[in-house]
Amino acid sequence: MQLGIPRERREGERRVAATPDTVRQLMGMGLEVLVETGAGDGAGHADAAYRAAGAAVVPQLDLASLDILAHVRPLDPRTAASLARGAVTVGLASPSSELPTVQALADNAVTSFALELVPRISRAQSMDALTSQALVAGYRCVLEAAIRLPRFFPLYMTAAGTVPPARVLVLGAGVAGLQAIGTAKRLGARVFANDIRPASADEVASMGGTFIRLDLETAEAAGGYARQLSSDAGTRQRQLLAPHVAQSDVLITTAAVPGRPAPLLVTRGMVEGMRPGSVVVDLAAESGGNVEGSVAGQDIPIPTADGTGHIILVGLKDPASAMASDASRLYAKNVANLLALLVRDGKSTLDFDDDVVAGACLTHAGDVRHQPTADLLAARTAAAPMAGPEGAR
Ligand SMILES: NC(=O)c1ccc[n+]([C@@H]2O[C@H](COP(=O)([O-])OP(=O)(O)OC[C@H]3O[C@@H](n4cnc5c(N)ncnc54)[C@H](O)[C@@H]3O)[C@@H](O)[C@H]2O)c1
Known about the structure:
- Helix content is about 35%, strand content about 20%.
- By secondary structure, it is an alpha/beta fold.
- Nicotinamide-adenine-dinucleotide (NAD) binds near residues 131, 197, 200 and 258.
């Protein structure tokens, strides 16, 4: 069976779905691996390294002849429609925001696996790309803050005087938030954090952070995820967080609620209350933003309330892609480990009795198997204007 690795087309995307290391692993499964020219350039893997690992490097993948396509970013509808019927895809799919692609995959009877849907159970941890990429993002956002902060992170006691450590506040202590806490701590900052899941207090402490307890309902849903706070509770959370935000040199926000836009945790007024030179990094900027006014890919200077300076509001974009080498190393392993469940001795073995295979499957044999996505598609179809002459009027 032929497995294709494309050069990612999305602007700014530098990651790749296979590394020379995983090419060897994939070939050990009996797969023939085709890598598009330049696919690994952004992640530091030259074509020659793929060839040396045993892959064939081709100027362009012939989508219609592939048995499997492994990718990083969600496919576009045209690519989905160009694949052979019955082909298998593995990669990030963002099902709820890429409905036309999901429809094209289903229409083309492609069996697609979305890495976002891999169940978060122990057995599937090695395939969990949300975790591996959040780890990279959590690390990166602290470095982005550190290079913009006109201060040290650690305490320095020197002959010229003592420099106090920076104070870092992390809101949202999931995978990315915990990595941010650990990274800021390793850089020597004093780190504080808040989350609305009760379990997060111990997790924050285990990374060396101090948990900020707010007099607020906890909000945990199934699977260890957060649920959305009521509007009143959200307002109260912002009020209670305001003094902590004001005392921080660095604020990092990573809060998310599955299937919803990112919750607003920090208003413009709260940012204006910080000291001049402070830095805010919004990791959720691409999914709606935890901080009012953040824009993905932009640094925005916000004047302080007292008019004495500015705070820099960073809307982080593609943080994992900015660390494409290690992000790809982990991502490619996630892909190869999932493929190991789907392929044996060069033959496809789709066992839908396996929880991981069934859970990660987005489309198969013309059906959208992920029910929430199927519901969204049905709602979209019902809401679409009639295509006939009457609808067009
Ligand atoms: N294989 C596994 O078992 C596995 C792997 C990874 C994560 N997990 C668990 O999954 C859960 C979610 O992790 P994630 O990183 O994907 O989360 P996520 O990206 O969905 O959300 C990030 C964090 O934001 C928090 N949050 C949401 N609304 C908030 C608010 N209003 N204020 C403050 N914080 C808010 C969430 O509680 C979460 O900790 C965690 O319990 C994690 O331990 C399990």
